[in-house]
Amino acid sequence: MAKIIEAARMDLNNTLKVDDEDDDYMVWCPDHNGTFSVNSTFNEVRGRSNEVEWCSFIWSSVIHPKVSASVLKLIRNGLATEARAQSIGVSLASCCRACYNGEDYVTYILWKCSFAQVIWQWPRQKFKCTKSTGNLKQAMRVEKDWSPLIKQMWTSTVVGGMMALWQQRNSMTLLIHKLLTVINL
Ligand SMILES: [Zn+2]
């Protein structure tokens, strides 16, 4: 038994009683040390699923975690858009602030909008990127001959571009709101 516990890298002293007359005590098996912790409990009870392909892209070491967290909200559609408001029953007309040709939803704002396509064209030319940037999956593709540094710069550019487009959308929304407020006065 001791060999099995040692093979599992568990703390032998913390798992087996040396003397049978010692009092019993609880051992937390999910942790290899046998000790209970919030971290090991969380890992035990959380649901695990396959890692999405954009996970390592947005949580790159070259991206500030605050930016990564914001982009995660964008990807998960966790930010306030008119399309999201419609999805929960709010009745309103959704319109892209940049082109007025599409609806106000994240995928359109970041990738489909004609304004966004013009914005993505600039880094594609600078990086000599032949890949399309019609969505995040396409934008994550890198050229085979790019060095690790260029790949990191491209990752930073894509994530930064997504945030810039979202912030531009918010600025336009605020500006329109202010204009409407002035007109109503
Ligand atoms: Zn647009």
Automatic annotation (TrEMBL):
<dbReference type="Pfam" id="PF13966">
    <property type="entry name" value="zf-RVT"/>
</dbReference>
<protein>
    <recommendedName>
        <fullName>Reverse transcriptase zinc-binding domain-containing protein</fullName>
    </recommendedName>
</protein>
<feature type="domain" description="Reverse transcriptase zinc-binding">
    <location>
        <begin position="36"/>
        <end position="120"/>
    </location>
</feature>
<dbReference type="InterPro" id="IPR026960">
    <property type="entry name" value="RVT-Znf"/>
</dbReference>
